[in-house]
Amino acid sequence: MRLLERMRKEWFMIGIVLAIAGAKLEPSIGVNGGPLKPEITVSYIAVATIFFNSGLSLKTELADSRLHASPCIFCSDFNQGSWWK
Fold first, then answer.
1. How confident is the model over 9-25, as a mean pLDDT?
2. Cβ count within 10 A of residue 12
3. What is an example of a Pfam family matching this protein (predicted)?
């Protein structure tokens, strides 16, 4: 039972070791133009996932205050942008 508890605690490190071992055994999966398409997944999907995860860790008080201000900024920017047309 201690091994299972230790694995649950260290799940991230185990995942990293497995990913590195898989890349060592089969490097053709991650090559440019390969099945993972790293030129797309790294530049778009990975960056979006990082920003999404960091957004989930924000405190709700901070998010509520920013959500209140963002419609005001959007409307003023949209209105001022349409003046020049």
1. 94
2. 8
3. SBF_like
Confidence of residue 17 (pLDDT cuts 50, 70, 90): very high
Domain assignment present for 39: no
pTM of the model: 0.49
Whether 62 is covered by a domain: the verdict is no
Measured CA to CA in angstroms, residue 9 lies from 2, 15, 62 at distances of: 11, 12, 30
In this prediction, residue 35 carries a pLDDT of 87
CA distances from 4 to 12, 15, 19, 58 (A): 14, 15, 20, 31
Smallest Cα–Cα separation from 44: which of 35, 52, 54, 34? 52
Once rounded to an integer, what is the mean pLDDT over residues 5-23?
Answer: 94
**Which amino acid type is present at position 32?**
N
The answer as to whether 14 is a domain residue is yes
Give the domain range for residue 26. Answer: 1-31
How many separate domains does the chain show? 1
d(C-alpha 56, C-alpha 52), whole Å = 6
